[in-house]
Design brief:
heterodimer, A: 267 residues, mainly alpha, MetI-like fold, 0% strand, B: 389 residues, alpha+beta, six-stranded mixed beta sheet, 33% strand, elongated
């Protein structure tokens, strides 16, 4: 006979496996499709060919995606670190309202952001033909994703570390660079990771503000599906994007996650 | 290394007064403790000395340098916090060397100094560890080494032992005193723990509600409290409010007859003799301050100054009262009696063999005592307590 405890065990395991299959299945389907031959070609080594195609023909798109993501990370860091520090460590009127306004892009639909930016770029900054226009669009949409983890990390960081550093003779900059920054590393890295994943895969905002000739990987995937239908080469490009995102997660956890968490008060 | 002078230092937080016109002179190499209940402004005062809080009035001097508005980094101080506050991502050696490193010292010089400091606090060989790998006591030792490494002018301690357990507190407080003596640093120490303050200080500043109540040695504040707050905050005391009913003509201090068991130093200062009526009790007192008939006063009586007197005995005491034992609490070295005298409960501490037998009889008991500390009633009440940052 099966006891009720064993039964619970079996049911919970089954539940976990079903969830896994449901969530992973689309990706597995995409992966298997990306290594099948297309109907127009003949031969046996199509699998690699699709990926060679992805890295060859579409390498421009992947490079653009990486470039835009990297620059957005830099802009976000430069904006969010000082902003987060000011919000947590300084008292000023309207602080809560300011913080709410700063996190607004999280709740605004991407299409709305896109239209606003097209308007703004056309009539004021004239950034419609610049890569920076796209970078700033990405930063605008994603910097709350960095700001919020930084604010949380700073709130959790007792101010006594900064006071101790200052009493030992450290300047504000030395305190910031040698004490605060390493100690909020986990929060910062979480923000970097989220920003990277979202910007690297962003489609809708890119569609609105990308300059002519600059086609990122997600945009290219959509263009191809619209014009050529779902081809295995497109699937290969999509899988490549998937792999880049996944690698980013693994690398961030490995470098930031471990190095900065170990030995701190957080663990 | 440096004298410290606080001149009318004041801190207001809006309408709240945290510290009110605080004056203090600390001599070179002196160990001064700020003692008071939580919220009395002692930490705020210390943080103003450090530069972590900017005063709203008054001046802070180190030697003849006005440091009132200098940031902490320009003051060359050593501040030991309530928590060790070691930088968790840096090794013990990097923590100790931090102060020298930010001032641009060369690496070999830092390494030598770090070794020297770790040896001084008894943690040689711990340099490579992370703070999280040390016990609480070890961490606070590292914090000490870290502030001493920069050779500060003044050492400031903000209840550095309050987060540690009792045994560790007892050993570490003497380590702190020993290190301060050996390095001949001027030190200001904040605590709410009387035994800590009594054990390590040259002088004690008793604070209440942002003001100084009394500055003096351990014996000053224990035996000769100047205000009712000091009398009640330091140690245990029985308070007997009353009215002066008779005043004897002043006797010359030298001719005052010494009574048994009374410290001569206290005797010299108590040339004024008078009687007070407290409820149904008539108490014969002596005081260092002159009083007049009709003055409202509070007489304080230490539990250890009350003696249990046998029937027919007690001629050597200026005052003898009778009461009923309500409770006996055996505390080890002493037994604490709660005796109801004239409708009020007096605490009496009994030592020696008597503490073992006193509980058996219960019932009625005779208590003898000599001098009471008499303080005018208007200075017996404290100001309302203000918040501490």
């Amino acid at each position: 006979m099966v006891s009720s405890r064993q039964l619970t065990n079996i049911v919970s395991h089954a539940y976990i496996w079903i969830c896994l299959v449901v969530f992973v299945l689309p990706f597995l389907a995409l992966l298997s499709y990306s290594i099948t031959g297309s109907s127009t070609a003949a031969g046996s080594t199509y699998a690699l060919k699709n990926f060679q195609n992805a890295l060859g023909t579409f390498s421009d798109n992947l490079v653009w995606s990486l470039k835009i993501s990297g620059l957005t990370l830099v802009v976000n860091t430069l904006v969010s670190l000082p902003a987060g520090y000011a919000i947590v460590r300084h008292q000023f009127p309207g602080k809560r309202i300011l913080f709410s306004v700063l996190t607004l892009p999280l709740y605004v639909p991407a299409a709305v952001i896109g239209i606003s930016l097209v308007l703004t770029y056309n009539f004021t900054y004239h950034l419609t033909n610049s890569m920076w226009g796209l970078v700033f669009a990405m930063a605008l949409g994603t910097f709350p994703l960095m700001l919020i983890p930084i604010v949380v990390a700073l709130k959790d960081l007792p101010i006594v570390f900064e006071e101790a550093a200052e009493c030992l003779g450290a300047t504000r900059w030395q305190t910031y660079r040698r004490i605060v920054l390493p100690l909020i590393g986990p929060g910062l890295s979480a923000g970097l990771l989220l920003t990277f994943i979202i910007v690297f895969n962003e489609y809708l905002v890119t569609l609105f503000v990308h300059p002519p000739g600059l086609t990122t990987a997600p945009l290219q995937v959509f263009n191809l599906i619209r014009t050529a239908g779902l081809a295995p080469t497109t699937a290969a490009l999509a899988v490549t994007m998937q792999i880049v995102s996944f690698t980013a997660v693994v690398l961030f956890l490995r470098f930031f996650g471990n190095r900065h968490l170990k030995g701190t008060y957080l663990l | 290394m440096s004298t410290v002078r606080l001149a009318s230092i004041t801190k207001h937080y809006g309408a709240t007064v945290a510290v009110h016109e605080f004056d203090l002179d600390v001599a070179d190499g002196e160990f001064v403790t700020l003692l008071g209940p939580s919220g009395c402004g002692k930490t705020t005062t210390l943080r103003m000395v450090a530069g972590l809080v900017e005063p709203t009035g008054g001046r802070v001097w180190f030697d003849d340098q006005d440091v009132t508005f200098l940031p902490p980094r320009a003051r060359n101080i050593g501040f030991v916090f309530q928590t060790p506050a070691l930088f968790p991502h840096l090794s013990v050696a990097d923590n100790v060397g931090f102060g020298l490193s930010v001032k641009g010292s060369k690496k070999p010089a830092i390494a030598t100094r770090v070794e020297e400091m770790l040896a001084m606090v008894g943690l040689t060989g711990y340099g490579g560890r992370l703070p999280a790998q040390l016990s609480g006591g070890q961490q606070q030792r590292v914090a000490l080494a870290r502030v001493l490494a920069t050779d500060p002018r003044v050492l400031l301690f903000d209840e550095p032992l309050s987060a540690l357990d009792k045994n560790l507190r007892d050993t570490l407080k003497f380590s702190i005193r020993e290190l301060q003596r050996r390095t001949a640093k001027t030190a200001i120490y904040v605590t709410h723990d009387q035994s800590e303050a009594f054990a390590i200080s040259d002088r004690i500043v008793v604070m209440n509600a942002g003001r100084v109540e009394q500055i003096g040695s351990q014996t000053d504040i224990y035996l000769r409290p100047r205000t009712g707050f000091v009398a009640e905050f330091i140690g245990a005391n029985n308070a007997l409010p009353g009215t002066v009913s008779a005043v004897e003509p002043a006797a010359a201090p030298a001719t005052a007859p010494a009574t048994a068991g009374e410290p001569a130093t206290a005797d010299e200062l108590r040339e004024h003799r008078f009687t007070i009526e407290s409820g149904g009790l008539t108490l014969r007192c002596r005081s260092r301050l002159p009083v007049a008939i009709g003055d409202q006063v509070v007489a304080y009586l230490r539990p250890e100054d009350l003696e249990v007197v046998d029937e027919g005995d007690g001629a050597q005491y200026r005052n003898v009262v009778e009461g009923d034992i309500e409770r006996v609490i055996f505390e080890g070295p002493t037994a604490q009696l709660r005796v109801r005298v004239d409708g009020r409960e007096l605490r009496v501490d009994v030592g020696g063999d008597r503490r073992l037998i006193v509980g058996e009889g219960r019932g009625r008991v005779r208590l003898g005592f000599n001098d009471l500390t008499v303080i005018p009633a208007d200075s017996a009440a404290g100001e309302p307590v203000v918040e501490e940052a």
